[in-house]
Amino acid sequence: MRNVFDYQIEYSGLQNRMAQMFDPKSGHTVMLAVDHGYFQGAPAGLINLRETVEPLLPYCDAVSPTIGGLKTSFNSNMRTPIILRATGGNSMRMPDELDDEIITVSVEEMLRVNAVGFTVSCYVGLDCQSQTIQSLTDLTDEAHKYGLVSIGITAVGADPVLTKFVKGEREDGGELTADDKKEAIKYLKHASRVLSENGADIIKTYYCDGFEEVVEACLAPIVIAGGTKRPTKEALEFTSNAIKAGAVGVDMGRNIFQNEHPVAMIQAVRAIVHDNKSPKEALEFYEEIKNKS
Q1: CB 85 within 8 A of CB 63
Q2: Which of 164, 167, 189, 204 is catalytic?
Q3: Which of the four CATH numbers 1.20.1250.20, 3.40.1670.10, 3.90.1010.10, 3.20.20.70 does domain 4-292 have?
Q4: Which residue did the predictor score with more confidence, 111 or 227?
Q5: Residues 266 and 56: beta-carbon distance below 8 Å
Q6: Which of 114, 217, 225, 273 is the most exposed place for a label (fewest CB within 10 A)?
């Protein structure tokens, strides 16, 4: 089982910030993504951001908000490392332009709010591929002067060919075919490698069958995105499969904060990521916590 400390990290400041995000025993991380409002508006589970986040902070190794979410809904005394969303400028109200992102937060602002790193969405294979990769390289070059961690996200926008990999189903609602699954591996291998070649310290991407190939092809450690909301059992299963395949953690949002019992869910995810529990054991743990609460 791979962990983040298997990778060579050149910058001492960067290494220190990376260590803040990863558990020293497991070498893995459970990151909580709550930045969805920058393009979705006010999705279910994040209407009251403060109310959602506060009970979950004790159980995540890092949290990823937007700059507005951070300043309005987080206590400045919290000790959880901050991974700041650094690109945006798009909206679900214009789905055809979902890949048209720009830099929205400066490195100076990241330092001002004491973030340890940032996320950038890169839309490999879509119309705005070039500008989004440029955003990654520009921010990474500047941020590395100060030892900030760069996380590149293999985003798929609204493209129906790519979003089926995230949803795990075809447009007609049917299951992915063998050819679909091969195409998913091919695309995620390519996109993850491109982002790592362009300097991202960590890659955030989606889980797929044959995920070992994606991990092997990538030059940087990988955390998996939770993607669309799924049943609890299914979400725990793909988390376990991803960790076994070599992911060093998760950066999960909707599958935690939109779960019927978010505090139980994040602890069940931790049981898999940090304690190597099976999906069955994690689900039993989830039910135990749920019933107590």
Answers
A1: no
A2: 204
A3: 3.20.20.70
A4: 111
A5: yes
A6: 114
